[in-house]
Structures are given as structure tokens and as C-alpha cells.
Amino acid sequence: GDSCVETYTKTIGKCTPADACTTARNDYQQNGIRPTFCTYSAFGTTLVCCRDGSSILNAAGSRPQPPAWNSDPNRQSDNRRVSERKCDEYSREVVERVDFIPLLPDPETISLTSAKCDYIGVQLIVGGEKASQGEFPHMAAIGWANFDGGYDFKCGGSLISNNFVLTAGHCTRDPAALNPEPSVVRLGDQNIDPAVLDGADPIEVPIKQIHKHPEYKPPSKYNDIALLELVSEVSFESAIRPACLWTKPNFGEHRMAIATGWGVTDPDTRQTSKELHKVSLSLLNNNYCDQLLVSSRNRLWRGFQDSQMCAGELRGGKDTCQGDSGSPLQVVSKENQCIFNIVGITSFGVKCAKTGQPAVYTRVSSYLNWIESVVWPGE
């Protein structure tokens, strides 16, 4: 197998089928240490980093705690907010159970879980790269009916439950459209050009009701957030799956976030993309961004409020742009790489990908009470 590094012992090992690695079984049984997973083989076999030698000694107080998505849901505290409980539910849908049988008399089977999904990461919209099919399964394209009998997709959003999509407030009305309000949400797609046959199997779900934040007063740039209630519940599968909501006011260890969308990828041509793009952006301090964007203040935007956030690349070249509105700014869960946490909603920018001109996003954590009251009332 390929060489690997075992996370807890920092020793070199080889990627080996889980059921053939004695040291991984011993480490888990005797010390509570989860195996370091390599990948999945072409035949669906789970591979772990298998080191040579005997099991490591258990040091007092050093036993790692299992991640939340690996724990018994019945033991979870009931006083967490509903969006956190829902996130655990979503996380359990994208893990695979691996059973180990210790080499002992009368052994009990040990079950572990590992994340399994299509996310391949962002190595580096404007300055970004194309996303893979199914890589961001919560992405939603918001469509307005056109004169040709089809839809014009002008905004993005995030599926956050089986019948709600989170987007920007200004994505709920387009006076120039045949019908000013959006009428449909497309899920499970990477290329929104209907003429392209790429193996995707997207669905289009009519919008039942639009819930704008009660304090969103267009054309003001504040409280730019809305929820689209779908006419029917969608079934989750590999290409259609909800994202979690980031619940903290700060971003912890995260210094970068991923923006996704079908917006303009070349500011010179102003042409929106039919293919979903992704780009990594720096999370910036509001006070610092306030100074950078001071010349952009006007009667519609008087500067940053706590309910807004700032992200971009100060040297330019990477940004969200027109057409990305409503799309998510997200971070990957530290516990489960298959789960995205939505930290922001693309609201507006001054100039796409220009030096010293970051974009402004709606801060999701500032609106959790309202979101939960609409999406999960009474839970």
C-alpha cells in the first residue's frame, strides 16, 4: 500500500485494509485511539494507516475524545440549539461504519465511523476553479421564469433542510424578470446549461413561499437574508444534501473560507458561468475592511455592522462577483470533511477581484434565532 503517517504517533505506516491491520485494532481497543483513514479503494474497501510495531502505551489524560459525529446521538445534550442538533443528523448521513473484531477470546465487535463523500478540497467565481459534480451537494441555483418557457438562474443559495434554501434578501425579487419573484430552485447540478449532458441528475423544485427577514428593507444593504420554502420535501442523496449553519460569532481556527457560485468569472466580459466555481478567500476583520471600503459608504450602506462580515484577497484576483449573490461562504467541518458549515451569504461587493476591495457577506450566526424559527418551528 501507499505510505502514510499515523496521526497520533506521527509514525510512518502503509495504507492497509482496515480488517487486516492489527495495530489499528489494538490502539482503538486498548487506548481509545481512532485509526487514521487513508482513503477508499476502487472496490469500496476502507484503508487505514497501519504502522509497524506493538500498540502504543496509554498515557494518562491523553486519550482523544471522539468527534461529535462518531458519538451516540442518544447521549447528546438536549440543550443545544436546533441547528446544532440538525447538523449532527446531517453528519451521520455521510459516514461509513467500519467493524473491527479484536483478536481476543470472546471478542466484541468494535465499530468506528469515517467520513465518505466527494469533496476534494480547494487548492487555491473570479480567480477560482471549477467545482466537481457533487462536490457541494447543498448548492442551489435560484431561477426566474423566462419568456422561452425555461428559467434564468440569477442567484445561488444553500439547502439547509429538506424543504428550505438559505439565500440573500435581494435574491427574492428581480423587477426586470417576467415574474419579479423567483419560482424554482435547482438542486444537484454543477452545470446549469440544460443542453449539457454531463451525467448529473438534478431536480427542480417549485418555491412555495419566500420568507424575507422582517428587517430587510431594500435597497438598504443590511439584513440581506431570506429563506425559500420549497413546495415539497427533497430526498437526500450523494448529490443533494444539506449544509450546516455556523453557530459561533467568530471563526475559531479557520482563516480561510470557500465561496461557491455560478456568477461572473471574468470581470471584463461580465459573463456569468454555467458551471459552478469555487474559490478560497481570507476571512478579514470587519474594522479593517471598514477602512478599505470607506469610500463606498452611502445612504444604503453606512459601513459594517456586526451582522455582516468581510472576505476576499487584498492583492486581488480572487473574489465573488455578480451572479454569486445568495451563494454560500463556507468552511469545512474539522470533524467531518463531508460537512460544510455556512458562515456567510454573498451580499455585495464594490469591484470584483480588485486589489484592496473585499466583498461583504451576511453573517449567518447573527440570524440563527430567526432561521430556526422559520425552518424548524417548535423543535
TrEMBL record:
GO annotation (BP), single: protein processing
Keyword Secreted part of the UniProt annotation: yes
Composition-biased stretches (Basic and acidic residues): 75-86
UniProt region (Disordered), positions on chain: 61-86
Primary subcellular site in the record, as a coarse category: secreted
Location relative to the cell: Secreted
EC number(s) given by UniProt: 3.4.21.4
Any GO CC annotation of this UniProt entry: extracellular region
Gene3D superfamilies from the UniProt entry: Trypsin-like serine proteases
Pfam families per UniProt: Trypsin (PF00089)
Occurrences of domain Peptidase S1 (ranges): 125-376
CDD domains for the chain: Tryp_SPc (cd00190)
Enzyme class: hydrolase
Key words of the record: Disulfide bond, Hydrolase, Protease, Secreted, Serine protease
Reactions this protein catalyses: Preferential cleavage: Arg-|-Xaa, Lys-|-Xaa
Gene Ontology molecular function: serine-type endopeptidase activity
Protein name, UniProt field: trypsin
Organism: Loxostege sticticalis (Beet webworm moth)
Taxonomic classification: Eukaryota, Metazoa, Ecdysozoa, Arthropoda, Hexapoda
